[in-house]
Design goal:
about 250 residues; alpha/beta; Rossmann fold; 2 domains; 4-stranded antiparallel beta sheet; 10 strands; about 40% helix; globular; binds adenosine-5'-triphosphate; binds magnesium ion
């Protein structure tokens, strides 16, 4: 197979990204890349700057300085073109609460110009085991059901890159396990790249090709889970986390 330059080019290239809120620096000069089909885990204590970073990658928060490039394009100047190929899930996502699950998915599908909407919705509902609440009004969903809806929304549009802020936070262990498998499968099948955050260390170790550890807005460690564990001379990622967080 022919290797084209686009296959080796990172899908996401972040350089010296900084976000200040007044005098407070939430994200402090971070740089990293994601390759096609790569799963990057972003780890760090509460308030480290993970969500702020994702919001900048989605164009929801304007960086104070630094650059964000996706698919070789600058987010500042090619916003629409880039965001069409991106999707995300977050617990803070707002969806019309009076619509049913299915109606909300239809709205998203139309916004992104998804082809074969009904078939796609059936597919994603089945994959995320949402059959029993697909006709429920969104306001009445449990938090785990809501998480699944935001993931369904994210997977519906066949993005090239997914930003998932704590995608398995309120899921029961069974469905969390299935979702991890499903995300890995999507990566395998379509070369999807994923940036996600989690406070679950086992998940970080199992899911991530590479991890960046954020602390007070800076990257303090980077590598595979095994590399990070070895570098800090700890037993596992949880021990590394506790060591760094308590410093
Ligand atoms: N709009 C804002 N105005 C002022 N400060 C903000 C704003 N948004 C975030 N911050 C601050 O920036 C810091 C980073 O917040 P962020 O939500 O990115 O953390 P996080 O790493 O996602 O944490 P968690 O694990 O709790 O989700 C926090 O101290 C937060 O209070
Ligand atoms: Mg957060």
């Amino acid at each position: 197979m022919r290797q084209t330059s686009t296959m080796t080019q990172p899908v996401l290239d972040v350089r010296d990204l900084t976000k200040r809120f007044g005098a407070f620096t939430a994200v402090n000069g971070i740089s990293f890349t994601i390759k096609p089909g790569e799963i990057l885990g972003v780890l760090g204590p509460n308030g480290a700057g993970k969500t702020t970073t994702i919001q900048m990658l989605l164009g929801l928060v304007t960086p104070t300085s630094g650059s964000i490039r996706m698919f070789g394009l600058d987010l500042e100047t090619h916003r629409e073109e880039i965001l069409q190929q991106v999707n995300f899930s977050s617990t803070y996502i707002s969806m019309p609460m009076s619509l049913t699950v299915e109606e909300n998915l239809r709205v998203v599908a139309r916004l992104y110009g998804v082809l074969g909407v009904e078939r796609k919705i059936d597919e994603v509902v089945k994959k995320l085991e949402m059959e029993e609440f697909r006709e429920k009004v969104t306001r009445k969903l449990s938090s785990g059901q809501m998480t699944r809806l935001t993931l369904a929304k994210a997977l519906l549009t066949q993005p090239k890159i997914l930003f998932l802020d704590e995608p398995t936070a309120s899921l029961d262990p069974d469905i969390a396990h299935k979702i991890r498998a499903l995300l890995k499968e999507a990566r395998q099948a379509s070369g999807l790249s994923i940036l996600y955050t989690s406070h679950n260390m086992q998940e970080m170790e199992a899911m991530s090709d590479r991890i960046i550890f954020l602390q007070r807005g800076r990257i303090v460690a980077e590598g595979t889970a095994a590399e990070i564990v070895a570098r800090f001379g700890q037993a596992d990622l949880e021990e590394v986390f506790l060591k760094l967080a308590r410093e």
